[in-house]
Amino acid sequence: MLRTTWTPGPAAGAVGPVLVSVTDFRVGRPHDLPGVYRAGLGLRRDWPQLPGAVGMWLWTEPLRGRCGSVSLWQDEQALHGFVAWPAHVAIMRRYRGRGRLSSVTWTATHSAPEIWDQARAYLSGAEIPAP
User: Fold this and answer.
1) 36 lies in some domain
2) CA dihedral 43, 119, 77, 74 (to 10 degrees)
3) How many beta carbons lie within 10 A of that of residue 51, not counting itself?
4) pTM of whole model > 0.85?
């Protein structure tokens, strides 16, 4: 699994529990994967401006036709703001029907490296440990 470096958001210094969101997009056709991933990189460039964003990684498994994100948020309201963000909505519409998206959220009090380890375990098929 390949991943980007950690991209901090404006709430990177927040103290307390965070909401973790993990997405997994499995493309139906391999030639769609580069476009999906580039779209994610575009969102990542604007990450430092997203209210309530603590930080994020993008990840991909190119040979398995998968990519997604692991993002940390101050709260559920911040995540919902991102989901409704026009740039995100446009990407979701553009790639709707070109694969299968799954996602999961949980609350964590761990550091970013520990959260990445939990997310990677989840993406590999393991259950998410209880907080």
Assistant:
1) yes
2) -90
3) 14
4) yes
Residue 68: closest CA among 29, 48, 45, 40:
40
Domain with 32, as residue range(s), is 2-123
Q: Would you mind telling me the total number of residues written for the chain in this entry?
A: 131
What pLDDT digit, counting tens, does each position of 15-46 carry?
889 999 999 999 999 999 999 898 988 889 99
The tally of domains found in the chain comes to 1
Using alpha carbons, list the distances in angstroms from residue 84 to 19, 89, 93, 119: 17, 6, 12, 23
Contact 21, 68 (CB under 8 A): no
CATH number of the domain enclosing 32 = 3.30.70.100
In a domain? residue 130: no
